[in-house]
Write a structure and sequence with these properties.
The structure holds two protein chains of two kinds. Chain A contains eight helices and four strands. By secondary structure, chain A is an alpha+beta fold. Chain A folds into two domains: 136 residues, Glutaredoxin; 44 residues, no CATH class. In chain A, a hairpin with a 5-residue loop joins strand 3 and strand 4. In chain A, helix 3 crosses helix 5, helix 5 packs parallel to helix 8 and helix 7 packs antiparallel against helix 8. Helix content of chain B is 40%, strand content 28%. The N and C termini of chain B lie close together (10 Å). In chain B, strand 1, helix 1 and strand 2 form a beta-alpha-beta unit. By secondary structure, chain B is of the alpha+beta class. The longest helix of chain B is centred in the C-terminal third of the chain and has 16 residues. Chain B has three helices and four strands. In chain B, strands 2-1-3-4 form a four-stranded mixed beta sheet. The chains are: A alpha+beta, B alpha+beta. The interface between A and B is medium-sized, with 16 and 17 residues.
């Protein structure tokens, strides 16, 4: 089912979404504060020939939403060229089921870019593949550098609790260190979709 | 009842919002086994995990088996392990 302007307008603005959050608002705002778009990226969005409509599907408990929705929100606020409306996944299954990851997973966030006549330009699901690949690589490096973590293929519940806590801390630190790069990959993916809008449209 | 402690561990992805499924399975196990389990441990983790182990043996893994698993199958696996431990 195609997304109509009427349906799109029923979504929450970014600020309304934040207001209705029941958890993780502090984490979302920390992610916002930690992201500053580059001048060249902002120039690319500001230079779009027309404002694009971006339908986002999200939930406040999801880590990828907390990481990536603020990027969209900030690009929209600072470029003035993205009209964002957010829908809660579990209350809008007809929408998420049109954008399943690998055709079967209701992964979020989903960002769908539409032109002025609601023709889809492209969509983004969850996180870029490059970010997933980097995390997997970093994970292997972590295990290689710390033999007491055991095999990356072994269940973590079999590690002694003290080792498991150190592994969790190391994983969190690795995530933190790669966040600026991951953010730039998200911007790159969103910019690629936005730039599909024809110059004359 | 088993003659030695039988533990269940549920490792779930905390950043993926898997708490409802984790708590639902925990409640199912609590009601099904009461004192027969020595503990049910919940381990908040990363990477899309939803793994259940009984007495150190993985009986369900989201990565390996897909999804959250059928609670009846997991209860069955616990029953089998309890029977083995009690025999």
């Amino acid at each position: 089912m195609a997304v109509t302007r009427e349906r799109f307008e029923q979504g929450l603005t970014y600020e309304q979404y934040k207001e209705q959050m029941t958890r993780n608002r502090d984490r979302l705002e920390a992610a916002e504060g930690g992201f500053t778009p580059s001048e060249s990226d902002l120039a690319a969005f500001r230079g779009l020939p027309k404002t694009l409509n971006v339908l986002a599907i999200a939930e406040d408990w999801c880590g990828d939403v907390i990481a990536n929705l603020p990027i969209l929100g900030k690009l929209a606020a600072e470029s003035g060229k993205l009209n964002v409306r957010i829908f809660l996944r579990d209350q809008n299954l007809d929408l998420i089921d049109q954008y399943l990851k690998e055709g079967k997973y209701r992964s979020i966030p989903v960002f769908v870019f539409f032109d002025d006549s609601f023709q889809e330009l492209g969509h983004f699901i969850e996180r870029p593949a490059s970010v997933t690949e980097l995390r997997a690589q970093k994970r292997l490096e972590l295990y290689a550098q710390n033999p007491d973590f055991g095999s990356p293929d072994s269940p973590v519940d079999q590690l002694p609790e003290e080792v498991r806590v150190r592994l969790a801390q190391a994983t969190a630190q690795s995530r933190e260190e790669t966040t600026p790069w991951a953010n730039s990959e998200v911007v790159r993916a969103l910019r690629k979709i936005a730039e599909r809008v024809p110059a004359g449209s | 009842m088993a003659t030695r402690p039988i533990k269940v561990k549920i490792t779930y992805c905390a950043e993926c919002g898997y708490e409802p499924q984790t708590l639902a399975l925990t409640e199912t196990l609590m009601k099904a086994f009461q004192h027969d389990l020595s503990s049910i441990e919940l381990i908040p983790w990363y990477e899309g995990s939803f793994d259940v182990s009984v007495d150190g043996e993985i009986v369900h893994s989201m990565y390996r088996d897909g999804g959250f698993g059928n609670p009846n199958d997991i209860v069955g696996a616990v029953k089998r392990r309890l029977a083995e431990a009690g025999s």
